[in-house]
Amino acid sequence: MYTLMRAALGAALLFAANVPPAVWPQNAVAEAEAVAAPVDNSATENPAILTLEEAERLALAADPGIPMYGAREAAFQERAVAALALPDPKLLMGFMAVPVDTFDLEQEPMTQVQVGLMQHFPRAGLLEHTSEQLQAKAQVQSAQSHQRRRQVVREVRRLWMELFYWNRAESVVRDTIDLFRQMVDVTTSQYSHGRSNMQDVLRAELELNLLEERRIRIGQMQDQARAGLSRWIGEAPARRALPDEPPEMDSPAELRAMVVALELHPLVEAQAAQVKAAESALGVARDKYNSQWTLSVLYGLRPGTAPDGSEWADFVSVRVTVDLPFFTENKQDRGVQAGLMDLQAAMWGKNDVMRALQSSLQEQHAKWTRLMERLSVYDTELLSLANNNSEASLRAYQNDVADFSTLVRARIMELETRLKWWRLRIDLAQTLIQIKSLVGEEL
Length: 443
Fold this sequence. Notes:
The protein is an alpha+beta fold. Helix content is 67%, strand content 8%.
């Protein structure tokens, strides 16, 4: 429709100027014929098109952060299992009561060659609480992995939409550039035939060059958006063409239901796991009031013989070592107080994260609501008004009722209206992407 109107505008301007057909812009007629030609819908979807779904898949497959958190989670799980095991026993070997005058092992009856084992038994509950703390840290890494996945998908969707907008903006500006090139041709022809003044020619050339400069700026924004997207999916896929229309997205759920869904947000789950880790750490601190035990068993071989010629009897020694936590004021008590403070901090951290997420959700939902209202105004009123104003300005110019500047302003206003309409559509989509990411919903 816009291409047809563009061709009609060029032809109408030339007709109004009464310029011979030999000087008509060639692209005006060609574009009108191209629009009138039948469209072949038999072509299948171009595999070179980079869809949003494929961009997400490429980003998730290439992202190193997700397996990084997965490896950390597995490491903590392994440590949690290892933490439940008792310390390795220790082998004891030595000599006892060796005479220093001769170092003869058979000289004295108390001389022994000792071999034994020593086993350390940690404080009651210490191993279990340590293992629980490591499991909670593994849950933190799991939640971070889920959050990373949401982050990757959110950023890819946002950047894909941003690149899509600048592609659409370039197309809209290029269409308007073609129109103003025709205006330059028309005003130049009119001026050469004495039917226009130099001001109209200069105004058309000025607007054309301003549009060319705007197209360059749009190209700069395209490059920036493409560079941002290439970080996640690679440079080659980011240079592929995008579809002509963005994907359809479902409206968000009711706000109250989405607030409830925030309880399952990975950041909230990570903070909840931090609370569990702090509770386990507090349990470790309290376990230090309990005693730890060490059991030693020694076998003493006496190599000598008795005066009657019989061998000396060997000895077996059993020893138990117990620490006595009597002085706890500056050690165990302080550790428990520190654990309580860490637990309180973790609980406050969870509340802070929840409040931040709720605030972000409410902000994005309010933004989405207002964007919907603004877009509705453009869909129902502004787009058609801008188009009708442009057509009315053209007819007025043809009938010498309006000057050339009025026609130029109408065309620029229509351009700005179309660009704002596309910007609103993409802003709405990006806001919906933020909301879906917060509540963990698919588009």
